[in-house]
Amino acid sequence: MTLTSLDAMAASVPDGALLAMPPDNSLPSVALAKALIRRGVRGLRLLGVPVGGFAAEILIGAGCVAEVETSAVSLGEAGFAPRFTAAIKAGSIVMRDCTCPAVHSMLQASEKGVPFMPLRGLIGSDILKHRPDWQVIQNPYGPPGDEIVLLPAISPDVAAFHAVMADEVGNVWLGRRRECATLAHASKRALVTVERVVPGNFLEDERLASGAINATYVSAIAIAERGAQPAALLDEYGFDAAYVADYARMARTEAGFQEWLAREVFAQAVAAE
Amino acid sequence: MTLTSLDAMAASVPDGALLAMPPDNSLPSVALAKALIRRGVRGLRLLGVPVGGFAAEILIGAGCVAEVETSAVSLGEAGFAPRFTAAIKAGSIVMRDCTCPAVHSMLQASEKGVPFMPLRGLIGSDILKHRPDWQVIQNPYGPPGDEIVLLPAISPDVAAFHAVMADEVGNVWLGRRRECATLAHASKRALVTVERVVPGNFLEDERLASGAINATYVSAIAIAERGAQPAALLDEYGFDAAYVADYARMARTEAGFQEWLAREVFAQAVAAE
Amino acid sequence: MIPTSDDRRAQPGGPNRPVEHALEELLAVCIARLIRAQPTGHIAVGAASPIPAAACWLVAKQGAPVRLSLLHKRSGNPFTEGTRELFDLTGQGRIDLFFLGGGEIDGQANLNLIGMGEWPGTQVRFPGSFGSAFMYMMTGRTILFREEHSPRVLVERVAHVSAPGVSAPGVFRRGHAQALVTGRCVFRFHPERARFSLESLHPGETVASIRAATGFDFDAADDVPQTAPPSAEELALLRGVVCDEMLETYPEFCARVFNRKSAA
Amino acid sequence: MIPTSDDRRAQPGGPNRPVEHALEELLAVCIARLIRAQPTGHIAVGAASPIPAAACWLVAKQGAPVRLSLLHKRSGNPFTEGTRELFDLTGQGRIDLFFLGGGEIDGQANLNLIGMGEWPGTQVRFPGSFGSAFMYMMTGRTILFREEHSPRVLVERVAHVSAPGVSAPGVFRRGHAQALVTGRCVFRFHPERARFSLESLHPGETVASIRAATGFDFDAADDVPQTAPPSAEELALLRGVVCDEMLETYPEFCARVFNRKSAA
Questions:
Q1: Structure pTM?
Q2: Does D94 sit within 8 Å of A216, measured CB to CB?
Q3: Which CATH architecture has domain C23-257?
Q4: A69, β-bridge pairs
Q5: How far is D73 from B95, CA to CA, in rounded Å?
Q6: Do A210 and D80 touch (CB under 8 A)?
Q7: CB neighbours (10 Å) of residue A129?
Q8: How far, in Å, CA of A14 to CA of A44, rounded?
Q9: Residue C72: its pLDDT value, please?
């Protein structure tokens, strides 16, 4: 069991790391994203699994990000992600557009220890044209002319997500959000924030085991209460639409975003000290 | 919710079907295997996921099986599977040897709707030499000479396994035995025996959802109490080692096997009527 | 004239428009009819728009044996293997119908969810293509939906193809667009000739007004019918049991469109 | 002379054999030493034999920071994604050590788990190769274990190669056999020359007796040492806390070998 503080966890993410995170509907660690902004991390390469949400948006806005590989960056109901959009227009980040199942497949390739994974679709899309790292081969099991895309395995340096709880041996539980398990399997390190640490061992409980990630894949755990907010956390708490709408309004301008950052990221740390 | 009887379920499996089943440590429906023997099914092509256990052994012994594709057929602690061994020696079944992860990968290829999946290992093994349906290609993401095996997708006609319970909308729950979920996803039909049917909807319960298989993949459900026995069922009941040891002793000879069948398969049906 | 956001509740008209209704309700009913027009076992619905979700619930509440997988449903989310399960399910060929939109949609049913200007959208950047480059080719069929019907959205040729409307021979593809539903009309798509034809006109529209609002060329018969208005029964379902199902995921939409005054 | 099943409990001997012990205990200690001889973070253990499992528990109980994933553990099974997780975990390069045996093992460390006679084993059929063709090449290293040491098992060339001992240049492979532990001796494997060398002799064995019982040629120094017997401390751990951990999965083994009389 490798319990650490949120700040120590953020400090362990080096500048330039390939950092993979789920979006708002699948347990992002917004708490860690804010801690990374406070730590002043730079040059992150973000992987949105399979898209980017609020956490990706604020990291981009705060200048922490050099590259983004994902299928979209969106604030969901609150619309476009304004700092992401501004960064693309300004050319200040490199964007590698994906399609959602490609992200999953590239991670599953790493999960299985194979160098690539095939994927249907994509042929005829400009997304493929802009991915020289994706190869197209004749399907060796298909008729002549049946081409298929091969996607290279991707192994993030760091996976970050928020789980409901950790047990005393370092397993974490996040129920049906199994994409986070694949992400942990595929990544070199998995940093997990949790609401709480509980006694026992999830693997000894048949009801909890299937929603657990074995500690073998978990590099560090930090307690961050309401650490997914404004995103929802299963049946623990709901999406904070008002918070995101307020953000979206303020982040229309760089000045408004900086004001938001000061209030919601930097002031929070001072308050917590 | 598609509740049926065990006999009707067995009757729905046509002669010659490609039938996939997990082995003794991952929730076989031994009840359905026995019902299939009583129904007199013939010409089954069995896929052991990833190996065959007690259910495969008795189906082979009863003459229901034409072909077996798997990585092993074993009775675990009770040793070699005597009727499987006899059938191989007699040449009465076609055996296609696999390696465990290949079975999983071929099913995952179907799960993902891709025509093949790569797998490391295997090169230099005679298993590969005897699988002309498995291709070897140069890894397009590797250095020259880095060859890798491509396995074709396999989609069983019928998947059969035993779950703990079904809910009132036809979801089934089997906890951490997620290979059965992949099997259901990959197969044209999934036949599931369960201990019991319970009210509610597993998907509405965060604790149960991650161990559930959505009803969309489940073709039929039949109640079969202790339907995995002699195999264990999670925390519901343990492995019946004495039953298997008794079987292994009797099945050393064809005559002994027939005596066992009469007592443990055919007489059981009469008793149940 | 098309209804605007300030004038959404159309006035009752002749025998075909017996009940006052919102444009959103008309569009949901349009989509529901397109769903029922073909055998449809399993529909997946993204969060993109509540109108397709309303259409699916309407079909279900009308008694069709359809399974709905709503991606962003928080309680009772259908996927127990995380977000990849939708794509796997679709890869398996189990999804008969999906919905897509686009920042731009062109006359060959190509979709642009990337942006305008140089790749990756240096002039206008849309959020991104999500799973469209896969879903559009792997689902049984797709209903395209975009409420805004203007030459800006419906273009001759999209700036960037997120997902292609048709594919070259030999490319593995399960289905195409069935139709494109907008705030002004319904287009049917003909993959064999990669062209839309005008299927029906929403109230106030003519073939000429559609041509004026559409950047791509399309086929039109001499007598394009009016889009049939929602029946009283359809509206009652929408405002009642459909609204009930949608309240958790789309509270704002339900308040704005269904208003609940109608159901009271 | 090797101990037989009727004579498993070896007699106490000179200063190196202070405590009476079973052959299984000696073998478990042998394997534990091989584990500790190299950095080992994560070991996976199949159900094949309880002796490697006992060795792993011994290492853990000796305080080494090793993670054990026991495939057939019923309560607290380490895998939450079903049986494929072991293979994925190994594919990821996270498994440092695995154990394999074989119906036949040859001098190049090739394993035959298929059978004898024509493929697929028409003369003698073994249960099958399980995951060996993958695991042997994808784990950091493998300890081969086969208690029976006879020319029938240890052959010059296996009838069928389930899993190859060495691979051609360019073939992706993470590791090889570290050693082969039998009821008579310990062989070390040298992948660079695809040959075994005799590492130590169990009590009662000589180089000549090993040569006589072995179907393959191997290297042997002039002075091959005796296998060091279990220490009193190792035996106490085996019979105490190791036995406690193994009781659920291997009750018959624990009763037969550890007997619990020793621990009392």
A1: 0.95
A2: yes
A3: 3-Layer(aba) Sandwich (3.40)
A4: A47, A96
A5: 29
A6: yes
A7: 13
A8: 8
A9: 75
Contact between chains at B139 and A115 (C-beta distance less than 8 A): yes
Question: Looking at the partner chain, which of A74, A97, A100 has a beta carbon nearest the beta carbon of C114?
Answer: A97
Q: Using alpha carbons only, what angle is made at residue D220 by residues D219 and D226, rounded to the nearest 5 degrees?
A: 140
When CB atoms are compared, the residue of D91, D125, D171 closest to B123 is D171
- CB pair distance less than 8 Å for A116 and B208: no
- Using the Cβ of B213 and the Cβ atoms of chain C, whether some distance falls under 8 Å is answered with yes
Cα distance from B141 to chain A (closest Cα, Å)? 7
What is the rounded distance in angstroms from the CA atom of residue B189 to the CA atom of residue B9? 11
Q: If chain C, 264 residues long, is cut into consecutive pieces of 10 residues, what is the mean pLDDT of each piece?
A: 39 53 97 97 85 96 94 80 94 97 97 97 96 97 98 98 97 98 98 98 97 98 96 96 90 84 38
CB-defined contacts A:D, below 8 A = 44
Which A residues 69-128 touch C at CB under 8 Å? 70-74, 76-77, 80-81, 84-85, 88-89, 91, 95, 97, 99-102, 104, 108, 119-128
pLDDT of the residue at D261: 41
Q: Decide if D195 contacts D146 (C-beta within 8 A).
A: no
CATH superfamily, region B3-99+154-272: Glutaconate Coenzyme A-transferase (3.40.1080.10)
Question: With contacts defined as CB-CB under 8 Å, which chain B residues touch A142?
Answer: 115
CB contact under 8 A, A50 and C125: no
Which residues does C218 contact at the CB level (< 8 Å), separation at least 6? C107, C187, C195, C196, C197, C198
* Nearest C-alpha in C relative to B205: C76
What lies within 8 Å, CB to CB, of B263 at 6+ separation is none
- State whether residue A100 sits within 8 Å of chain B by CB: no
Selecting from B101, B118, B210 the residue whose C-beta is nearest the C-beta of A178 gives B210
D99 and D45 Cβ atoms separated by less than 8 Å: yes
Q: Do A116 and B141 touch (CB under 8 A)?
A: yes
Q: Is the dihedral of CA A243, A69, B109, D92 positive or negative?
A: negative
pLDDT band at D263 (very low <50, low <70, confident <90, very high): very low
What SS3 string covers chain C?
A: CCCCCCCCEECCCCCCCCCCEEHHHHHHHHHHHHHHCCCCCEEEECCCCHHHHHHHHHHHHCCCCCEEEECCCCCCCCCCCCCHHHHHHHHCCCCCEEEECCCEEECCCCEECCEECCCCCCCEECCCCCCHHHHHHHCCEEEEEECCCCCCCEECCCCCCCECCCCCCCCCCCCCEEEEEECCEEEEEECCCCEEEEEEECCCCCHHHHHHHCCCCCECCCCCCECCCCCHHHHHHHHHHHHHHHCCCCHHHHHHHHCCCCCC
| Cβ-contact A31, A84 below 8 angstroms | no
Kindly list the residues from chain D whose CB atom is less than 8 angstroms away from the CB atom of residue A210.
80
| Partner residues linked to D111 by β-bridges | D105, D163
Residue among B46, B69, B125, B174 with most chain D CBs within 10 A, to mutate:
B125
Min Cα separation A225/chain B (Å): 19
Would you state the pLDDT for residue C251? 83
In this prediction, residue B269 carries a pLDDT of: 63
Enumerate the domain spans of chain A. Answer: 3-99+154-272, 101-152
What residue of B is the nearest CA neighbor of A214? Answer: B176
Tell me the chain A residues in contact with residue C135 when contact means C-beta distances shorter than 8 Å: 121
Whether the predicted pLDDT of D8 surpasses 60: no
* Domain residue extents for chain D: 23-257
Q: Residue D84: which of B25, B99, B104 has the nearest Cβ?
A: B104
Chain C interface includes B179 (CB < 8 A)? no
Is residue C14 packed enough to be buried (19+ CB in 10 Å), middle (13-18) or exposed (0-12)? exposed
Query: From its phi and psi, is residue A140 left (phi > 0), alpha (psi between -120 and 50) or beta?
Result: alpha
